[in-house]
Amino acid sequence: MKFNTLTVMLCCVMLTGCSDYEWGWYVLDPSTKQGMTNLKFLTDGFSATISISLISMFFAMLIGFVVAMPALSKSPYVRGINRVYVESIRSIPVLVLLLWVYYGLPTLMDISLNHYWAGVIALSIAESAFMAEVFRGGIQAIQRGQHEAAHALGLSYWKTMRLVIFPQAFRQILPPLGNQFVYILKMSSLVSVIGLSDLTRRANELVVNEYLPLEIYTFLVLEYLILILAVSQGVRWLEKRYAIPSH
């Protein structure tokens, strides 16, 4: 809601000119040395944002898959393990979890943890609860007849899952996987509070140096917009590539 409100306010200011704010787009003018330096400083944050998002997504999928398995059990006690984990993690705000991992984990475990891996751990844990639900829903969406057919062919449980269920479930969960990756890309902006030099952190640092927040934050909005639109297009391509054939 805050992001949407800020966006609307920026649009109103730019389109109506109703503010006394003195615009200084020279700060990002690529035809000047200062502008090119500032643009390079901002765009260099792409590598940190993309890498931490990809690594966190990878670990979130691994953890989420492991957490999803108990949900498929016939035992209510085993399923309860899944519910406790999922509901507990989803109830913790990502920023709170990030701060706890960065400041609390090194103290409790007596380890050295830099801001990059603290961000990876926090985002992976936070996202894993959602990924567990994605995997659970995708696997349970496969018709029971598929399990029975594989059992009739003499396949073991794990061979059935690996050769029959998982390939079909992957097609089912591809759209929500894309949505969750977009979500983790946006949540990665929170790692700026612990010092990681991502897109948001670099924008904040440049604002402190140049005192032109609207120009710089507008450019930051465009950076995330371009990044997320590119990811969305990639996900759509994958959806078409692995779409379930219609009969």
Automatic annotation (TrEMBL):
GO terms for cellular component: ATP-binding cassette (ABC) transporter complex. Keywords: Amino-acid transport, Cell membrane, Membrane, Transmembrane, Transmembrane helix, Transport. Its main location: membrane. Pfam families: BPD_transp_1 (PF00528). It is found in: Cell inner membrane; Cell membrane. The chain crosses the membrane at residues 46-72, 84-103, 216-238. Part of the ABC transporter complex GltIJKL involved in glutamate and aspartate uptake. Probably responsible for the translocation of the substrate across the membrane. Belongs to the binding-protein-dependent transport system permease family. HisMQ subfamily. This is Glutamate/aspartate import permease protein GltK.
